[in-house]
Design a protein that fits this description.
The protein is an alpha+beta fold. Among the domains are: about 5-140, no CATH class; about 275-405, Heat Shock Protein 90, CATH 3.30.565. Helix content is about 65%, strand content about 10%. It contains twelve helices and five strands. The chain has a five-stranded mixed β-sheet with strand order 1-2-3-5-4, with helices on one face. The two termini are about 55 Å apart.
């Protein structure tokens, strides 16, 4: 951008910030352009015989009438009244009409219409029309019907232009306000989405940590019990603990990475995809390595659920088996059933252990965080969840997920 254009932009910004100064410059420009007319030796059409000679008082009246435009935006009706009053004084003194005060009259009509409400603007328009017709009667000149109609139409047109620009400014202001409201609403939605995402990540962390730490705890206990009489089995258990620990750290690193800033986030290539029902076999293998007998049944024609339902079903099974590991007892068995229909997927996890009371009690009088996470996760995808004791002993979790969003 050239220095000249930058200077013009800076000047425009300065005047926009100081509207009264801009209006004062407008009034001065009218005076500079129109005052030489006052010193013409002859008026058009020989009208000079009807008027008094221009003198200092005439000059001062024209300057005073024109400079009132300085307040045309803040006090438009008062400015119009002062200009009309000044024109009356000029007419009574028989001074000839001058371009500055006539243009100032039109600018005042426009300002009333553009900067005031309809009632005040209508009053200003009526005052302007009355003053115009009175001036045409007082000042000598052509009073032909066409001239009268043309002058009145011109005043009405200037008034209508001011009203149109006012309505346009109000419309643009409403659009800007609506855009600002939408922007604030988007910001609120974004904050709500961040809160929801953090809640989801908290559930993910709970599932990951609870499952893997439970597996590691069970394996460590088994290794301690058999360390003296079965060192090979103890080493195998310690190897499982190491592998599960690495897996837990990897998943925790991936999930926590979502919370990092873009600058600190890991490269996208290092982030593994979310687990789903396709990883169920690996999960059950890990659980079986802890000593818990788990069987899997798949009924119906397997269908691919939505990614969210896929993750939710996997995490539900993971959480339920984690609770079985922690609370069911050493001789417990577990069953996992996946039942597909055309419209939904039913997931059932049951065990025959003795941990029903512990699971339901949770922390104090409230269900544990894992059960709360189950309810939230299933409800998020429009599913249904039932949790409670099994007939004949043990504990059961049954969830139904719709396959379509």
């Amino acid at each position: 951008m050239s220095p000249r254009i930058r200077g013009l932009h800076a000047c425009r910004a300065w005047f926009q910030a100081r509207p009264r100064a801009a209006d004062a410059v407008l009034a001065l420009a009218l005076l500079v352009a129109g005052l030489p007319q006052l010193y013409l030796e002859e008026l058009p059409g020989g009208l000079e015989r009807y008027y008094a000679q221009t003198d200092v008082w005439h000059l001062l009246l024209v300057v005073a009438v024109t400079m009132t435009l300085t307040w045309r935006r803040s006090r438009p009706l008062a400015v119009l009244g002062l200009i009309v009053a000044g024109e009356v004084v000029i007419a009574v003194a028989h001074y000839p009409p001058a371009a500055p005060d006539m243009v100032a009259f039109m600018v005042a009509v426009y300002s009333v219409a553009a900067h005031r409400g309809l009632a005040v603007a209508a009053l200003g328009g009526l005052v302007a029309l009355a003053a115009l017709n009175a001036f045409m009667l007082v000042f000598p000149g052509d009073m032909a019907l066409m001239s009268v109609l043309t002058d009145n139409a011109f005043v009405v047109g200037v008034w209508a232009l001011g009203r149109n620009l006012r309505l346009r400014r109000a419309y643009l202001a409403e659009l800007e306000d609506r855009a600002a409201r939408l922007e604030r609403a988007r910001g609120t939605d974004a904050r709500a989405a961040r809160v929801e995402e953090r809640s989801r990540i908290a559930r993910e962390l709970h599932d990951v940590v609870a499952h893997h730490v439970s597996v590691m705890t069970v394996q460590a206990g088994a290794a301690r019990r058999i360390m003296d009489r079965h060192p090979a089995g103890a080493r195998e258990a310690m190897t499982t603990i190491e592998e599960v620990g690495r897996t837990a750290l990897s998943e925790m690193r991936r999930i926590v990475g979502v919370l990092r800033t873009e600058r600190d986030a890991e490269p996208a290539g290092e982030l593994a995809p979310q687990p789903g029902l396709g990883d169920l076999g690996e999960l059950l293998d890990h659980v079986r390595e802890t000593g818990l007998a788990v069987q899997l049944w798949i009924e119906g024609e397997a269908r691919t659920p939505s990614p969210g339902v896929d993750v939710a079903a996997f995490r539900l099974i993971q959480e339920a088996l984690t609770n079985t590991l922690k609370h069911a007892g050493p001789q417990a068995r577990a069953w996992v059933r996946l039942h597909y229909t055309d419209r939904d997927l039913t997931v059932e996890i049951e065990d025959d252990g003795r941990g029903t009371a512990t699971i339901m009690a949770g922390n104090g009088d409230h269900p544990g965080h894992g059960l709360v996470g189950m309810y939230e996760r299933v409800a998020l995808y429009g599913g249904e969840l039932r949790i409670g004791p099994r007939v004949g002993g043990g504990f059961g979790v049954r969830a139904r997920f719709p396959l379509e969003a």
